[in-house]
Model the fold of this input.
Amino acid sequence: MTTIRDVAKKAGVSVATVSRYLNGNGYVSKDAEKAVEAAVKELDYEINQVARSLNTKKSNLIGLILPDITNPFFPELARAVEDVALTYGYTVILCNSDENPEKERNYTEQLKKKYIGGFIVISNQLDAPHYTDIKLPIVALDRAINESVPIVSSNNREGAALGTRALLDRGCRNILFLRGPEELNPANDRYEGFMAEIDGADAHFSVLTGPFHFEESEELVESFLKAHPETDGIFASSDVSAAGALKAAHKLGIDVPEDLQIIGFDGISMGEMLSPGLTTVAQDIYEMGAVAARMLIKLIENQPLEERFHEVPVKLIVRGTTRSVRT
Amino acid sequence: MTTIRDVAKKAGVSVATVSRYLNGNGYVSKDAEKAVEAAVKELDYEINQVARSLNTKKSNLIGLILPDITNPFFPELARAVEDVALTYGYTVILCNSDENPEKERNYTEQLKKKYIGGFIVISNQLDAPHYTDIKLPIVALDRAINESVPIVSSNNREGAALGTRALLDRGCRNILFLRGPEELNPANDRYEGFMAEIDGADAHFSVLTGPFHFEESEELVESFLKAHPETDGIFASSDVSAAGALKAAHKLGIDVPEDLQIIGFDGISMGEMLSPGLTTVAQDIYEMGAVAARMLIKLIENQPLEERFHEVPVKLIVRGTTRSVRT
Done:
């Protein structure tokens, strides 16, 4: 039977792109659309046919364990996981863990006794026995800890270097870095990327550590800006923190981007709704979820993985919270 | 066995509040927290015990069919459904329909052949055969169409009257109402609420119909404000549309709230991240999801429903896009 992978290969695009096209969700370029259409036709790929396998597979349930679906980073991931899963005839059980190891254990222990095929896990607890001893396929998403578990994440270090360089190139010389929680690997990678890039640059910098949380970031930044009015650039490790920083600047009457430039990290859609629109280091969140789902399904179906560590590239999206590059 | 309902009754709070407390998610007042703690203790209610029933029930899967989890209104609903489901030993399958009847039909037809206990459905398609002939419990959420299906929704009409009155009370005399899609009952109820309240008021008004979509709302409002600079109030039928209106105002250099006041509808957390913060008619989104989940579980477990139509009250949250009331 023709698979979505065959279609992707034929069309010369990613599995995620084919999935987006088939599910009618998310951006697909005109060129990719044409290529996928042609490949579907040529390979005689029956779209609705796959959904029928919903009824024929044994373990066609995937558990998606994430901290909290109301954190705006996770819905896009969940959407991608579900899209790809559906395309392959799987359905997705949503598990909000609140980063509580006890809740995660409950989910894994109870679901593994039933019909679950495997888990996609966003957690800091990957070393815990309920993951290491599970004897079911697991793919880690966003956060790597346990090296025995395949992982999909962004290139966080490079992304942070990119964001830092963007502030320096735009003339910032007094930069505040809003570091995320120390227990989160992606936050630490971003911190390292910032430190590597700022090292030796002709700029002063400070680092504040805080949660990826709007109100707390707003309060942290407001206090900091009052004490350090010379600050001319803020690089936040998440878009939600960046939104808090922008709000603090507005509250203090600071002109963004003229007197203070702000860059976030994530690329969630909320960024464009802010005024000015948020410049950010964007992760390809949909691609991350799609690749993780594809990897898990391969594991469930005993297919070989081409790679156990997949890093998704990031890119800078320039909006209104930064000025043009000074040459 | 003591149930969560017993705890709620004893504590004098809603099932949703107990669920929030047990799952450590969402706001619970100090008073409610104390009452729930006391009730849990007095009734000797074992929190982890319920999760064990995950493994003992036959149909412990709930299908949650919603348009798109990346629309910021739905993650809060999904979170509440999952929290309550978990408390009762159920798990939730996430189904993104893209409001595509074919996808909805696929989900219901395939899942009903398996182990699904019932569905919570957010859809305009409730009259379709795959719902009317399903022979499984269904609860409609947010959107009522088919009267044979129990429904949980906000008091949309009253909410719209509340928002309209808020603009009038704050001196607005040239009001633009951003109406939502005509195929959506909640959007129509909001339109009726607006019309009932504006009728006879000493104010001019216009109505523009558009999707609950940021960019399209921004464009619609930008054109309108250019043609009608006398506009001093905008009431948008969703927070995302209101964010678009605010962005348009900023783009045109219009002072919000001094020269133009804006009110949204929904109460999603993004509203507070905007500058100024968005005044909005807030739905109790979590309560809606929690009540719907409780109703569905009752139906699955053959318990009587006390009501087939549950309307959740709304309230006005005043932030920075409106001025103080003129007396």
Remarks:
- Chain A touches chain B through 51 residues (CB under 8 Å).
